[in-house]
Amino acid sequence: MNQADGIRVAVLDDYQGVAEGLADWSGLGRDVTVDFFREPVPQAEAASRLAPYGVLCLMRERMPLDAALIAALPSLRLVVFTGGRNPSVDVAALKARGITVCNTRNGEGGIATAELTVALMLACARSLPREFANMAGGRWQETLGEGLEGRTLGLVGLGRIGARVAAVGRALGMRVTAWSPNLTPERAEAGGAVLATREALFSESDVVSLHMVLAPATRGIVGAAEIARMRKGAILVNTSRGPLVDEAALIAALGEGRIRAGLDVFDREPLPADHPLRGLPNAVLTPHLGYVTEGTFRMFYEDTVEAIAAWRRGAPVRVVEA
Question: Which is the catalytic residue, given 269, 275, 302, 306?
Answer without folding.
Answer: 269
